[in-house]
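Box 3.1. Reading complex inputs
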Amino acid sequence: MDRKEIVNRSRRKRRSMTIVAAVALILAPLVWAQRTQLKPGWNMFSPQQDVEMGQQVSRDAEKQVPMLNNSRVDKYLNNLGRTLASHAPGERYPYQYKCVNDRAINAFALPGGFIYINRGVIEAADNEAQLAGVMAHETAHVALRHGTNQASKAYVAQVPLAILGGVLGSNNSMGAMLAQLGADFATNSLLLKYSRTAESQADEMGTQILYDSSYAPHAMAQFFQKIQAEDGSGRPVEFFSNHPNPDNRIERVDQEIELLGGSPRGSKTDSREFQDIKRYVMSLPAPPAKGGTQLAGNTGSGTSGLRILGASYGAQDRFIDVRQRLESRVQNDRLHLQVTNSSMGGDPISEPKSLLLRYEWAGRTYDVVVPEKQWITIPTEQQQTGSTASSDTRPGWPSDRVRPFENSVLRIEHPDNWQAYGQGDVAATITPDKGLVDDGRGNQALAYGVIVNIYEPQTDSNYQKQLQPEGYGQSSGLFMEETTNRLIEELRRSNPGMRIIRSPENIRVDGQRALSTDLSNDSPLGGRETNWLVTVPHAEGLLFFVFVAPDSEFQSYNHTFRVMLDSVRFRR
Ligand SMILES: [Zn+2]
């Protein structure tokens, strides 16, 4: 860490302390400093991709589990959930809560905030605080990104280097990635089966959320204790199959409540609304027998035409429902519009917003996330022709106007008609429209554009120690070359057609020593492509760029790629 960062950090810290001090003056009893600090673990997905993944998997989930589809119950759950979610730290996901028509005691959460509560939980809870406890626990799994943390670990274990072959990046690739991971809802063991450590974390954060929402903080642990001891009603308890009971569960929750300053007087335990809803749910017809086909509203294969199944517009936790509005804009089975505040009919939050859209075309369901200001055309050309081969696979010419993309390691400018997809803190894919293509095996592969990532050679620590930015030692050049060669070996393992056409040469990127290597590879479009590899030492490994275009067009893109590389500024 260099001086500038230290200065920045301490400045940031000072500012947040000022805010804490001000809050403490107003709300003296709040004890913030002592609570267990919980943060999401390592993740290769962006929070936005959590939402995309959750959307996609929730679609499967809702076909496989019997949804109650009762607006009164779902509305009650969402009101309660909104209160809890507003106290969940971290990313502001579009949290939503739905009731499952199943009397077993269970609940589950998908990445990005899609939370499902069995009616059995409502029926078994003694009071609102206990139900809130289960919901807070599920909300904590989302906030702590446990699902995509699991998926990230599984992915890295499966694919040593998650690049070229490009499962990263585009919205469409999420399905391929989930299939590759076996993380769809049916075979799911990945997104929902948590470790005991994750369970402990969800308990601690769940308790904090309950506390901050002014609910009796012991309620969550009480409920788990109660269902563990069977509740005597004959309801099967399935909760612990996905949420393994961590050691000393009750003691740990008690500890956390101590840290929070003890159970506050006057905290909320029950409400009349809860008792009304509980009575109402118990009066509803028995759920369908398990094991049968529960595909409500079977999508007839003969169905064609465009149907908007759901649409919301906003950011963080503020979204407006725009389904009817979009339906009214559908003409001749086409929807074509620009996503703006005026076309969406409102400005729910003063931040960059997105349209989350689910639609059906020719009997298949699709999910898309469209950032504000972008145009959307559905069904897409590919969906209309039913083929993956588009009539024109060439992207439009790169614009001369640029816009920046920034992440935790660098800032880079790219043509403003290209799109940057960040993955985690470091990785990014920057590509023109049509730059990602289907490789014929269901993967999205990069045909035009650039991939940025960090390669961490898996070797002895001595070796890594010597891989340091320039100035740390005389031998860094040698190690940079060796690591670059290892990276190329790794790349060739997943790209058997790859060859070196020009050996590494010294260049500079943002004043720092770098290596430039030309590779030739099979293009996902057929024929050959050029991969221009640029590697730069970084504290955590080898930072690399791969600029990609078909051989026949590489010269035309060369200028754009060089301008992009020149614009790179490392965060120091
Ligand atoms: Zn859990």
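In summary: The chain has a mean pLDDT of 79.
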